[in-house]
Amino acid sequence: MKPTLLVLAAGMGSRYGGVKQIDAVGLNDECLLDFATYDAMRSGFGKVVFIIRKDIEQAFRERLFDRVSRNFDAEYVFQQHESLLTAEQIKDSAGREKPWGTAHAVLCAEKAIKTPFAVINSDDYYGRQAFEVLGKHLSSIDLMSREHAMVGYVLGNTMSRSGSVSRGVCTVEDGKLKSIVENLKIYYEDDKIISEVDGVKNQFTGKEWVSMNFFGFSLKAFDEFHAYWENFIKTNSTSQKAEALLPVAASDIISHNEGIIKFFTSEETWFGMTYPQDRLIVKDEISKKIHTGYYPEKLWEK
After folding, report:
1. Is 216 helix (H, G, I), strand (E, B) or coil?
2. What is the pLDDT of the chain when averaged over all its residues?
3. Least confident of 20-24, 276-280, 292-296
4. Which domain holds residue 216?
5. Which of 96, 106, 123, 235 sits at 20 to 30 Å (Cα–Cα) from 53?
6. CATH number for the domain harbouring residue 75
7. Cβ atoms of residues 167 and 224 within 8 Å
């Protein structure tokens, strides 16, 4: 049973200033997602499902999806404002522009997921080794297994000099995730790595393990995700900014004793499309990997 790759590609790109998930970075105008999909295909995944916004559908097809779907089993679904909301909640949240967050996005794709699945962001580079490790795990578990997984990265390998980043700092025990604490503003201050919460600064060593939203779940995880979403929307239906976050929903699996999350690790150096100036960095990093033979110059055959 081959696992599915689920791609979170419905973000607004407010810091980037555009639809970063379909911006060209490869030698033949490939997007960063082309390389993630290629790595997943090479690592034993059988399908990719993209979660997008309705308003970017045409550009998404032209810039990415039509090309990927000619080479790999691919599908896309929409994360819409009213998805999973009652009529009253739709009324309460009228005027909200921001998507409801990554946990909501995953639930929007539930009907398209038939096998154990991995989740990734659309604007982060993860490295093929991480796909191989997580793909092997997901191929080995049952549909309703209580054994989920994730790949953690070294904080110092995931920082940006362009501005602050959001990272979930992980506590790991006996090879399993114990907790994730979301840090929404981590940045360099000279050469120090600082986390700022409500104006209070704390310094990190840079060696902490962090989540980059690269999780692997059986279908059983949806039970806990629905429970998390129902609790979230009851108290946040009128909010313009609150987001239902996948790492928080994943943490509930552990805190509610509904399963475990095995913790795999990667020493890969991150790069991604968070800020406009990041695009040139990503292009350069991808070019280096092509020149070393890590990727072919022409990624897809057709």
Report:
1. strand
2. 93
3. 20-24
4. 4-146+211-240+264-291
5. 235
6. 3.90.550.10
7. no
Can you tell me which residue has the tokens 């578990």?
A: 141
Is the Cα torsion angle 23, 27, 30, 35 positive or negative in sign?
negative
What is the CA angle 123-125-128, rounded to 5?
140
Say if 134 falls within a structural domain.
yes
Question: What residues contact 279, with CB distance under 8 A and at least 6 apart?
Answer: 20, 23, 25, 273
- Retrieve residue 254's tokens: 């552990």
Burial of 226 per CB tally in 10 Å (0-12, 13-18, 19+): middle
- The DSSP element (H or E) to which 111 belongs, if any, is none
Structure confidence by residue, pLDDT tens digits, 171-181: 999 999 999 99
Overall domain count for the chain: 1
Q: Where are the alpha helices (DSSP H) in 187-302?
A: 221-236, 246-255, 278-291
Q: pLDDT-derived band of residue 289, with 50, 70 and 90 as boundaries?
A: very high
